[in-house]
Amino acid sequence: MDYSGTQATKLYKYQWDYIHDPQTMLFAWAEEEEEGAMGDEKIIENILTGIRNTVNSNGNELKISNYYTTTYSYGVEVSKWKVVDFGEGNKFTVALYLHEVLDEANKNIVTLLNKTEEIKKRKYLSVNGNCLTLYFKYKERENIYGLEIAVPETEAEKFKEYLFPTFIDKFKTSSEQAIKDAIRTANGKESPARCNVGTRAAFYYMTGDPILFPITCSCLDAFWCEKENLKCGGVEGNGDANSIAKSLEDGLDGFTPIHDVSGHDYPDFAKMQEEVNNGAIIIGAQYANVGSGHVCMLMPEFLDETTCETGLNKKVKINGVLVSVPVALECGSNFKKVRRLVWSPETLKEVKWYKYTKK
Q: I need a surface site. Which of 49, 107, 172, 226 has the fewest CB within 10 A?
């Protein structure tokens, strides 16, 4: 890597060792990579996921030693190339480099938010051209870039959005405003159920699409509102949860049903949660023969407001199988917040799920 322009004025021990005995040092590097105990074949996926999760949790530090360790004190260089696919169109041709990894874990922490970017020509795998390159400095070692990541320039914007997603903030602000809207329609009270109001409002703030509002039109945050706050959508009936559930089942524009796992009577909740964590929008709807039904919108796990509450299971048994429980915006009668669902196994099976696929 080019360190020109930095204030570095010394050579590290491994650099002196390489100058004086290159054969031994090259063997040591090859040996470490060959042993395989120090790294992981999914190191690229793991580091990228680590960056994304750290940023989503409002963090700024990534511990390289969580992904790669060494017993050498001179500073190890690691180079990896791979095509990785995280789903939802997030497929990238990545070159990843670790620089001067030491045997002291606290010396291998990089900071994320003060990264440096450049467009640089590279050649690796099928890539031969301009690439976006991101550099991340070590926290405790001045002017040393510990992590370097490159992707083709054509993948640059999508890649940056994946690593440093803005949709998480949009989910957050949309759900917060939707909760306020739901409470406002209940005259400032939190107890009356307003799941239809909260769900359609959050969906509208996320997408700009009023499709979950009734055809006869309704307000975002009140039973009566000014014209500019009146939204007209595609839901038949009065716009309650049953109306939304029925319209979704009948093929509401822009939504695709999520089918059950083969051989089971429930969908793949873990996969659904992963898709939402990556920006997908999924609506759950339960039609009730007695009552007004229920609707909700799944939310990224990073926004779960109940992570510290005891008694909330991340998994439940359905038909004897341990199944993940997703996180959703709930605006029912008991609470209005983003939380892990506390439904019974039977309810989890009864609710039908729809993915918004309209672009």
A: 226
